[in-house]
Design goal:
Elements (H helix, E strand, L loop, with lengths): L1 E8 L13 H10 L4 E7 L5 H11 L2 E2 L2 E5 L5 E5 L3 H14 L7 H4 L3 E3 L5 E4 L12 H10 L3 E4 L9 H5 L10 E3 L2 H5 L10 E3 L16 E3 L5 H8 L2
Helix pairs in contact: 1-2
Length: 233
């Protein structure tokens, strides 16, 4: 069946995410846009996923648990998991690999953890957009140990894109899917390697940027597990 998705959305836990990117607002905007599947992929953390997951389930929306991780090469990688529990376990390990740089909220913005009522229940004091002390290859292996799949993010972009930083995508890394921004798709960048499947997501940091019904995915069922199988096949 065909399902419509936006698989790269930031909540208010990402320092660059808007204050209105709360769990309820994300889920309700996705419903208004007619989406079937979303992924919330905050920078280097999964701590807002439990609230989003509970709300998505209640609304009949499928959440693919994810993170956007910055590797030692400064490349952004989308990491997707079959359930919130494994995403959180991975997130806890990732936090230990972040440099101990305190958050300057006046410069970067707050990093707010919320519950299902959109109430702040905590915050993260370490700057989440820093690069890890772990390479792309190491990160990919770590994600797989937690049942996850890695996808190079916005490969068409100069900032944090794998091609701009490394010059190419090493086949040895085993990626079967990449992400290209909507602008990159329009420019023909999705033809980079016809052997690779392409996702095109919003990378939304504001509610209005969440995609509408523009990216159909052909999946056997509407589930995170089925989506991960699609990525890795």
């Amino acid at each position: 069946m065909k399902y419509f998705a936006d698989l790269h959305i930031h909540s208010c836990l990402s320092p660059c995410g808007g204050e209105d990117m709360t769990p309820n607002n994300i889920v309700n905007m996705a419903l208004l846009k007619g989406l079937d599947i979303i992924a919330v992929t905050d920078h280097n953390t999964a701590r807002n996923l439990p609230a989003v997951d509970a709300l998505a389930r209640e609304a009949g929306l499928c959440l693919v648990p994810g993170l956007e991780v910055t590797t030692a090469e400064d490349v952004h990688m989308l990491t997707y998991f079959p359930d919130v529990e494994r995403a959180l376990a991975f997130s806890d390990e990732i936090y230990g690999l972040l440099p101990d740089i305190p958050l300057n909220a006046r410069f970067f913005g707050e990093q707010t953890i919320m519950n299902e009522e959109d109430e702040p229940v905590g915050s993260i004091d370490r700057l989440l957009i820093s690069a890890l002390s772990e390479s792309i290859e190491q990160l990919t292996a770590r994600a797989r140990r937690h049942g996850g799949v890695c996808v190079p993010a916005h490969i068409d972009k100069e900032s944090h894109g794998i091609i701009a930083l490394l010059g190419f995508i090493n086949p040895h890394l085993g990626f079967r899917t990449v992400e290209v921004s909507p602008r990159g798709v329009a420019a023909g960048f999705s033809q980079y390697d016809p052997r690779l499947k392409v996702l095109s997501n919003s990378d939304a940091h504001d509610l209005g940027l969440i995609l509408e019904r523009v990216q159909p995915l052909e999946l056997a069922e509407k589930s995170a597990a089925c989506f991960l199988k699609y990525l890795d096949s």
